[in-house]
Design goal:
Elements: E1 2-7, E2 10-14, E3 19-22, E4 38-42, H1 53-60, E5 66-71, E6 86-88, E7 93-95, E8 101-106, E9 112-118, E10 121-125, H2 139-160, E11 167-171, H3 182-190, E12 196-199, H4 206-214, E13 231-233
Parallel strand pairs: 3-4, 4-5, 5-6, 10-11, 11-12
Antiparallel strand pairs: 1-2, 1-13, 2-3, 7-8, 8-9, 9-10
Helix pairs in contact: 2-3
């Protein structure tokens, strides 16, 4: 599987069967093979995770097989005309056209997180599933947030049955200040994976290096620690 970082929480993953474009917001896409199917996934309706202009971009690029997979909270009027969208809600599991499987997990904010099995490739995109603890919020609210996040990550780990993810795209948001590491750290401690791509860093990719300075044991696992453009093969 080949992974290309686009912008913010948007990544392009390519397997032998298909492309997968997650949470396109803005940014330039690389050259694509027009005849190869592309699954366009949007985890929820927030403007930094879903931009319906992506479908016009792909049309101009000549992509011949485009499948939108959209969270159920995305308004019908923003879904692409002329394409049959697969609408997904938390807890659903279904097959994709080339025989892949998709499982949707419940976000702690809005929408879903995605787990995709494509042959030997198994990969996860968190969307906004994160431990959204904030300084100044009521302690009880933060406690419930942590409980809800860990419950969903534990459910993910149990479903994997020890099989490692080829790639995982996980939130590391600098706006949480001293709490920003919570979600990523719990994920790393509980979910087996080969490559982890921190995302949702806004304009502060240096937060990845800061995380690794505190937790150097994950240096070999965290991809592109300098926050620059990623284009690499996941082994």
């Amino acid at each position: 599987m080949r992974v290309t970082y686009i912008h913010h929480s948007c990544f392009l993953a390519e397997t032998e069967k298909s492309y997968y474009l997650f949470d396109y917001f803005q940014g330039s896409l690389p050259a694509l093979k027009p005849e190869k199917p592309i699954v366009v996934l949007a985890s929820h309706s927030h403007h930094d995770h879903y931009n319906p202009a992506v479908f016009s971009i792909l049309e101009r690029m000549g992509m011949q097989q485009v499948l939108p997979v959209l969270s159920s909270d995305i308004p019908p009027e923003t879904r692409p005309a002329g394409l049959s969208s697969q609408v997904v809600s938390p807890g659903e599991r279904f097959a994709l056209p080339q025989g892949q499987t998709l499982t949707a997990y419940r976000s702690t904010d809005l929408g879903v997180a995605f787990l995709i099995q494509d042959g030997d490739d198994l990969f996860y995109h968190a969307g906004d599933l994160n431990d959204w603890v904030w300084e100044g919020e009521p302690e009880e609210d933060n406690r419930r947030m942590t409980q809800a996040y860990r419950q969903e990550i534990d459910r993910l780990a149990q479903g994997l049955q020890g099989k490692p993810l080829s790639a995982a795209f996980v939130v590391l948001d600098p706006r949480q200040e001293e709490h920003c590491h919570r979600g990523l750290l719990y994920f790393l401690q509980h979910v087996p994976c080969k490559n982890v791509y921190p995302m949702h860093t806004w304009e502060h990719p240096e937060i990845i290096a800061q995380f690794l300075s505190e937790y150097p044991q994950y240096n070999a696992l965290i991809a592109s620690a300098d926050g620059n453009t990623i284009q690499e093969d996941c082994l």
